[in-house]
Amino acid sequence: MPSEDSSPRNASQVLADVRKLIAGGGLDADGKLPNERDLSVQLNVGRRGLRRALDALEAEGLIWRRQGKGTFIGQPPDPKGKLAAEISAEANPLSVMEARLCLEPELAALCAQRAGPEDLVRMHHLVDRIDQTSDAESAELWDGSLHRLIARVAGNPILMTAFALLDAVRTSQTWQDQRDRARSPELRRLYTQQHRSIVSAIARHDTDGARATMREHLSLLSLNLRAVYPGDRP
Question: If pLDDT is split at 50, 70 and 90, which confidence band does 175 have?
Protein backbone atom coordinates (compact mmCIF):
# COMPACT_ATOMS: atom_id res chain seq x y z
CA MET A 1 0.00 0.00 0.00
CA PRO A 2 1.36 3.50 -0.78
CA SER A 3 2.92 5.31 2.16
CA GLU A 4 1.19 8.24 3.86
CA ASP A 5 4.00 10.64 3.09
CA SER A 6 5.25 9.84 -0.38
CA SER A 7 4.22 8.92 -3.88
CA PRO A 8 6.30 8.27 -7.00
CA ARG A 9 4.10 10.75 -8.88
CA ASN A 10 3.61 14.46 -8.43
CA ALA A 11 0.43 16.19 -7.36
CA SER A 12 -0.55 17.11 -10.92
CA GLN A 13 -0.38 13.47 -12.00
CA VAL A 14 -2.48 12.39 -9.04
CA LEU A 15 -5.03 15.09 -9.83
CA ALA A 16 -5.16 13.96 -13.47
CA ASP A 17 -5.73 10.35 -12.38
CA VAL A 18 -8.61 11.31 -10.11
CA ARG A 19 -10.15 13.38 -12.91
CA LYS A 20 -9.92 10.36 -15.25
CA LEU A 21 -11.59 8.16 -12.65
CA ILE A 22 -14.46 10.62 -12.27
CA ALA A 23 -14.87 11.20 -16.02
CA GLY A 24 -14.65 7.50 -16.84
CA GLY A 25 -17.94 6.57 -15.17
CA GLY A 26 -18.48 3.29 -13.34
CA LEU A 27 -19.29 5.03 -10.06
CA ASP A 28 -22.32 4.37 -7.89
CA ALA A 29 -25.58 5.94 -9.02
CA ASP A 30 -25.20 8.63 -6.34
CA GLY A 31 -21.75 9.59 -7.67
CA LYS A 32 -19.89 8.46 -4.55
CA LEU A 33 -16.14 7.92 -4.84
CA PRO A 34 -14.35 5.03 -3.12
CA ASN A 35 -13.11 5.83 0.38
CA GLU A 36 -9.63 7.33 0.72
CA ARG A 37 -7.96 4.06 1.67
CA ASP A 38 -9.37 2.16 -1.30
CA LEU A 39 -8.79 5.07 -3.66
CA SER A 40 -5.15 5.43 -2.62
CA VAL A 41 -4.59 1.74 -3.36
CA GLN A 42 -6.47 1.93 -6.66
CA LEU A 43 -4.39 4.91 -7.82
CA ASN A 44 -1.14 3.81 -6.13
CA VAL A 45 -0.72 7.11 -4.35
CA GLY A 46 -0.10 8.19 -0.76
CA ARG A 47 -3.05 9.39 1.31
CA ARG A 48 -1.54 12.88 1.66
CA GLY A 49 -1.18 13.31 -2.10
CA LEU A 50 -4.68 11.99 -2.63
CA ARG A 51 -6.14 14.46 -0.13
CA ARG A 52 -4.40 17.34 -1.92
CA ALA A 53 -5.94 16.23 -5.21
CA LEU A 54 -9.38 15.94 -3.61
CA ASP A 55 -8.98 19.36 -2.00
CA ALA A 56 -8.24 20.86 -5.43
CA LEU A 57 -11.27 19.20 -6.99
CA GLU A 58 -13.48 20.39 -4.12
CA ALA A 59 -12.19 23.94 -4.60
CA GLU A 60 -13.19 23.69 -8.27
CA GLY A 61 -16.66 22.57 -7.29
CA LEU A 62 -16.23 19.17 -8.98
CA ILE A 63 -16.68 17.12 -5.80
CA TRP A 64 -18.22 17.63 -2.38
CA ARG A 65 -17.75 15.87 0.95
CA ARG A 66 -20.07 14.99 3.79
CA GLN A 67 -18.68 13.96 7.16
CA GLY A 68 -19.36 10.28 7.80
CA LYS A 69 -20.90 9.78 4.33
CA GLY A 70 -18.00 10.11 1.89
CA THR A 71 -16.95 12.07 -1.18
CA PHE A 72 -19.28 12.65 -4.14
CA ILE A 73 -18.89 14.17 -7.59
CA GLY A 74 -20.72 17.36 -8.50
CA GLN A 75 -22.43 19.89 -6.24
CA PRO A 76 -23.99 19.02 -2.86
CA PRO A 77 -27.76 18.65 -2.90
CA ASP A 78 -29.86 21.30 -1.21
CA PRO A 79 -31.62 19.78 1.85
CA LYS A 80 -34.77 21.69 0.90
CA GLY A 81 -35.05 19.31 -2.04
CA LYS A 82 -36.49 16.68 0.31
CA LEU A 83 -39.82 18.38 -0.21
CA ALA A 84 -39.86 16.78 -3.65
CA ALA A 85 -40.58 13.38 -2.13
CA GLU A 86 -44.15 14.49 -1.53
CA ILE A 87 -44.85 15.33 -5.19
CA SER A 88 -42.45 13.15 -7.18
CA ALA A 89 -45.02 10.38 -7.60
CA GLU A 90 -47.33 12.82 -9.40
CA ALA A 91 -44.68 14.57 -11.53
CA ASN A 92 -43.98 13.34 -15.05
CA PRO A 93 -41.06 14.54 -17.22
CA LEU A 94 -43.20 17.08 -19.06
CA SER A 95 -44.44 18.76 -15.87
CA VAL A 96 -40.84 18.92 -14.65
CA MET A 97 -39.77 20.55 -17.91
CA GLU A 98 -42.66 23.02 -17.81
CA ALA A 99 -41.53 24.13 -14.34
CA ARG A 100 -37.86 24.24 -15.35
CA LEU A 101 -38.72 26.49 -18.29
CA CYS A 102 -40.42 28.91 -15.90
CA LEU A 103 -37.52 28.97 -13.45
CA GLU A 104 -34.11 28.20 -14.92
CA PRO A 105 -33.89 30.91 -17.61
CA GLU A 106 -34.30 33.52 -14.87
CA LEU A 107 -31.70 31.78 -12.72
CA ALA A 108 -29.29 31.87 -15.67
CA ALA A 109 -29.94 35.60 -16.11
CA LEU A 110 -29.23 36.26 -12.43
CA CYS A 111 -26.14 34.08 -12.64
CA ALA A 112 -24.87 36.20 -15.53
CA GLN A 113 -25.10 39.25 -13.26
CA ARG A 114 -23.29 37.66 -10.32
CA ALA A 115 -20.85 35.01 -11.57
CA GLY A 116 -17.23 35.59 -10.62
CA PRO A 117 -14.04 34.24 -12.22
CA GLU A 118 -13.92 31.14 -10.00
CA ASP A 119 -17.56 30.34 -10.75
CA LEU A 120 -16.85 30.53 -14.48
CA VAL A 121 -13.85 28.23 -14.18
CA ARG A 122 -16.05 25.68 -12.44
CA MET A 123 -18.76 25.97 -15.07
CA HIS A 124 -16.29 25.44 -17.90
CA HIS A 125 -14.87 22.40 -16.11
CA LEU A 126 -18.33 20.91 -15.72
CA VAL A 127 -19.18 21.41 -19.39
CA ASP A 128 -15.89 19.72 -20.30
CA ARG A 129 -16.77 16.78 -18.04
CA ILE A 130 -20.18 16.40 -19.69
CA ASP A 131 -18.52 16.44 -23.10
CA GLN A 132 -15.76 13.99 -22.21
CA THR A 133 -17.90 11.42 -20.41
CA SER A 134 -19.21 8.59 -22.56
CA ASP A 135 -21.23 6.94 -19.79
CA ALA A 136 -24.81 8.29 -19.79
CA GLU A 137 -25.22 8.01 -16.03
CA SER A 138 -22.06 9.99 -15.32
CA ALA A 139 -22.97 12.57 -17.96
CA GLU A 140 -26.30 13.09 -16.22
CA LEU A 141 -24.49 13.68 -12.92
CA TRP A 142 -22.21 16.30 -14.48
CA ASP A 143 -25.19 17.87 -16.28
CA GLY A 144 -27.08 18.19 -13.00
CA SER A 145 -24.00 19.65 -11.33
CA LEU A 146 -23.79 22.39 -13.94
CA HIS A 147 -27.44 23.39 -13.57
CA ARG A 148 -27.12 23.33 -9.75
CA LEU A 149 -24.03 25.54 -9.89
CA ILE A 150 -25.81 28.08 -12.10
CA ALA A 151 -28.75 28.12 -9.69
CA ARG A 152 -26.48 28.52 -6.66
CA VAL A 153 -24.45 31.36 -8.21
CA ALA A 154 -27.72 33.14 -9.07
CA GLY A 155 -27.81 33.85 -5.35
CA ASN A 156 -31.55 34.04 -4.70
CA PRO A 157 -32.49 31.76 -1.77
CA ILE A 158 -36.19 31.68 -2.63
CA LEU A 159 -35.58 30.68 -6.24
CA MET A 160 -32.93 28.22 -5.05
CA THR A 161 -35.53 26.52 -2.85
CA ALA A 162 -37.84 26.14 -5.84
CA PHE A 163 -34.96 24.83 -7.92
CA ALA A 164 -34.01 22.32 -5.22
CA LEU A 165 -37.53 20.93 -5.32
CA LEU A 166 -37.32 20.43 -9.09
CA ASP A 167 -33.79 19.08 -8.87
CA ALA A 168 -34.75 16.39 -6.38
CA VAL A 169 -37.40 15.14 -8.82
CA ARG A 170 -35.01 15.43 -11.74
CA THR A 171 -32.33 13.35 -10.03
CA SER A 172 -34.67 10.51 -9.10
CA GLN A 173 -34.06 7.17 -10.79
CA THR A 174 -37.48 7.28 -12.45
CA TRP A 175 -36.73 10.61 -14.09
CA GLN A 176 -33.30 9.49 -15.27
CA ASP A 177 -34.69 6.30 -16.79
CA GLN A 178 -37.28 8.36 -18.66
CA ARG A 179 -34.81 10.99 -19.81
CA ASP A 180 -32.48 8.31 -21.20
CA ARG A 181 -35.20 7.38 -23.64
CA ALA A 182 -35.10 10.90 -25.09
CA ARG A 183 -31.32 10.94 -25.44
CA SER A 184 -29.05 9.97 -28.33
CA PRO A 185 -25.34 10.58 -29.08
CA GLU A 186 -26.32 13.33 -31.52
CA LEU A 187 -28.59 15.02 -28.99
CA ARG A 188 -25.97 14.74 -26.27
CA ARG A 189 -23.51 16.60 -28.49
CA LEU A 190 -26.10 19.27 -29.21
CA TYR A 191 -26.92 19.63 -25.50
CA THR A 192 -23.21 20.11 -24.79
CA GLN A 193 -23.00 22.85 -27.41
CA GLN A 194 -25.96 24.54 -25.77
CA HIS A 195 -24.31 24.25 -22.35
CA ARG A 196 -21.25 26.00 -23.77
CA SER A 197 -23.44 28.77 -25.17
CA ILE A 198 -25.13 29.24 -21.79
CA VAL A 199 -21.80 29.48 -19.96
CA SER A 200 -20.40 31.82 -22.63
CA ALA A 201 -23.34 34.18 -22.16
CA ILE A 202 -22.87 34.05 -18.38
CA ALA A 203 -19.15 34.80 -18.83
CA ARG A 204 -20.05 37.90 -20.89
CA HIS A 205 -22.49 38.95 -18.15
CA ASP A 206 -25.11 38.91 -20.88
CA THR A 207 -28.33 38.49 -18.91
CA ASP A 208 -30.61 38.40 -21.95
CA GLY A 209 -28.31 35.96 -23.74
CA ALA A 210 -28.07 33.67 -20.71
CA ARG A 211 -31.84 33.68 -20.34
CA ALA A 212 -32.40 32.98 -24.03
CA THR A 213 -29.82 30.21 -24.36
CA MET A 214 -31.07 28.44 -21.25
CA ARG A 215 -34.63 28.64 -22.58
CA GLU A 216 -33.49 27.28 -25.94
CA HIS A 217 -31.71 24.38 -24.24
CA LEU A 218 -34.65 23.43 -22.03
CA SER A 219 -37.13 23.87 -24.88
CA LEU A 220 -35.21 21.37 -27.00
CA LEU A 221 -35.10 18.87 -24.16
CA SER A 222 -38.83 19.37 -23.58
CA LEU A 223 -39.54 18.85 -27.28
CA ASN A 224 -37.58 15.60 -27.30
CA LEU A 225 -39.36 14.36 -24.20
CA ARG A 226 -42.71 15.10 -25.84
CA ALA A 227 -41.66 12.99 -28.81
CA VAL A 228 -41.05 10.08 -26.45
CA TYR A 229 -44.19 10.70 -24.37
CA PRO A 230 -46.75 12.09 -26.84
CA GLY A 231 -49.66 11.10 -24.60
CA ASP A 232 -48.27 12.65 -21.41
CA ARG A 233 -49.36 16.09 -20.29
CA PRO A 234 -48.40 18.08 -17.18
Answer: low
